[in-house]
Design goal:
By secondary structure, the chain is mostly helical. The protein is about 80% helix and about 0% strand.
Length: about 250
């Protein structure tokens, strides 16, 4: 009972974090490992359990989606779905150690881009006399790679998405949050299908259910909270989450 309660609360926190700024994996995964699940199984369980929460948050934001650059929302979402499926497949057949070694550096880069990307983009625009941006093809390639990462591990993939959109198109973190949540749901959804079919996620049904229920509640509440936060406050939350996540990942070695 205590283990289920811990996982339930972790699900609430993870769902809310994913809705507000990202980083829910860094709450969900350690909680599942702490109650005895092997890391790979815990990773699969957390991904499956966080899907309904991500979908719930996306539903709350459904009328607030703005396209990213020249790419349609449909094209971006399809790319996220395909990337998430490929990443999940890689998780099932490859060891995670080598990829995890790169994660802290990816997070550090993403945090720096979140903090300074808009300033750099503005400075380059003034220096070049024209807007700085990327093509639709470059955006889709980047989104596919993020989808692969999201399906494979997923930690702070939302932060990396906002970093990519910020440096490529000057998308503000607060304005891009609805699309970030929607693309996160797309990545997780396709990965979940593979995990349910080919992993041991269903061998821990009580823990899976507890985290799932918590993530739905947290995702719903977090999305409503994020909609009411001023842009400056939401940006501060995102940067705090990104910085904390990066530091913790470097500390864990």
């Amino acid at each position: 009972m205590m283990e289920s309660l811990l996982v339930l609360l972790a699900g609430v926190a993870a769902g809310a974090l994913n809705a507000v700024g990202g980083g829910g994996t860094f709450v969900a995964l350690p909680a599942l490992v702490a109650v005895g699940l092997p890391p790979v199984v815990a990773n699969a369980v957390s991904r499956v359990a966080l899907v309904p929460g991500a979908v719930t948050s996306a539903w709350v934001y459904r009328r607030e989606l703005d396209p990213v650059g020249p790419t349609s929302t449909r094209a971006l979402t399809v790319t996220s779905v395909v990337g998430g499926a490929v990443g999940a497949g890689l998780l099932l057949v490859l060891p995670a150690a080598s990829f995890e070694a790169a994660v802290p550096w990816l997070l550090a880069f993403a945090t720096l881009v979140l903090a300074f990307g808009r300033h750099v983009s503005g400075a380059l625009t003034r220096a070049l006399g024209r807007p700085v941006g990327m093509s639709a093809r470059a955006l889709l390639v980047g989104q596919f790679l993020l989808g692969v990462y999201g399906g494979y591990f997923g930690g702070a993939v939302g932060i990396l998405m906002l970093a990519l959109w910020g440096i490529g198109f000057g998308v503000d973190a607060a304005a891009g949050n609805p699309m970030r949540v929607t693309q996160l749901a797309a990545m997780y959804l396709s990965a979940t299908v593979l995990f349910l079919l080919a992993s041991d996620a269903l061998k821990a049904p009580l823990l899976l259910t507890a985290m799932l229920v918590g993530a739905v509640a947290g995702g719903f509440a977090g999305a409503h909270l994020a909609r009411r936060l001023p842009a400056r406050v939401l940006r501060a939350v995102l940067l705090t989450t990104a910085t904390t996540t990066t530091v913790l990942y470097f500390l864990r070695g």
